[in-house]
Amino acid sequence: MEKKDIYEHLAKIYLDASLKRKSSKVHARFKKLFFLSTAVVFVLSGLLLFSLLGRKELKSETQLVFCPDPVKINFNFDPAKKEIYSINLKGLNLARFKALGFSVKKTSPQDTISLRVEFNSIFKEKSQIYFKDIPYDWRDYKISLAQFKDISDWSAMSDLSFIVEEWNTKGKKGIVYLDNVRLFDKKEVK
Known about the structure:
Elements: H1 3-59, E1 63-67, E2 71-76, E3 82-92, E4 99-106, E5 115-121, E6 126-131, E7 139-144, E8 157-165, E9 173-184
Antiparallel strand pairs: 1-9, 2-9, 3-8, 4-7, 4-9, 5-6, 5-8
């Protein structure tokens, strides 16, 4: 082997090794860039999806819950003439709300019970609606606040009451359960 051949052989080995290092560095950079760009795409798509879902939730119905746990209205009309469960609203502004919802049931299937629901404002406005024949099983009610016609200003409410009256029941004793009392900001009433 001549000197020239040896030099060419060594140069070829050196260049091949150099090209392999460069290509492996380029390949490593490409891998890093690919994984980084993929991670960015996933994060951005996740944020976009989250924001779209968040907007959808913002468009959904808002509720103000007064009574998340069941309340027992135990009536005995001897000597009382009515039993009241009242929620003190403390001047709460309910102007943005459109409907009242609640669940109710009685304990005895043979009883005939009507329930009076009443709103009172700080301005001495009072309006009531009767729900006749309270069911034996839980039933959800949702009623538009516009049906409480005697309330003209919902900006300062004093209380919300659920009343069982002697003249609106078949028996003198009984129990009515009330649950999930809430206000909705949408107009749709079921």
